[in-house]
Amino acid sequence: MSSESEVAVRTAGLSVHYGRIAALENVDFVVTKGSALGIVGPNGSGKSTLLKTIAGLKAPSSGTIEVFGASPRALAPGTIAYVPQVEAVDWTFPANVYDVVAMGRFPRLRALARFSRRDREVVNEALDALRIGDLRDRHISQLSGGQQQRAFVARAVAQEPGLLLLDEPTTGVDAATEDALLALVRRLVAGGLPVVMTTHDLERAGEWFDRLMVLDRRILAIGDPDDVLASGAYAGIREHVHTHGHLRSDRAAEHS
After folding, report:
1. Host domain of residue 6
2. pLDDT of residue 10
3. Which of 20, 209, 216, 240 is geometrically suited to a Cys-Cys bond with 45, CB 3.0 to 4.6 A?
4. pTM surpassing 0.70?
């Protein structure tokens, strides 16, 4: 049992609805500091909704969620860093890579304050950590998918958050980007940062995560990644989806 001082995220009976559609039902779990939780499930299983709820972007319909012992919306700006899926980003926004990463510092700045030497150092460190320092002057629309993903993860890292949320950051990226993200996540976790990440890629789950959750609106399994995968919980969902075609979309639910 984790002590309260170690708990980063705690949910109890968490349910989230879009109108009459249930995206999450009775979800209970804990994420401790210095650990990485992976979340897997089919399209429309509530993975993105769960991250948005942890980030305070979506309110629970019932049940509770606490981040560092408080409601996500009550936390100081910058406490939670959330990186959405790449396709959710407006790539026409007029900014270069450095500008995008520097935006991560904005929650930390006092009103009308200018960038300090420390702010610039943090931004440069984040660029280097994601291996995109040489792209600092490139417009974000000119980047490859993998480079774009690195830029937005670098922005989250520059924020120096207390909790990092990543929504399928390895989808459509090259092997070099995946390796860079994996190394970064494990380094941040080793430094005490809690990370919650959704993914469809299970081949390296044991490398990425300390615990793995199988989600299909409800939690079907959670625990050691190897044990969860051996349980067949995720394979059972995938077989059901393949056989019966029950593909759902969180975005479709949001607009229902």
Report:
1. 1-75+208-256
2. 98
3. 216
4. yes
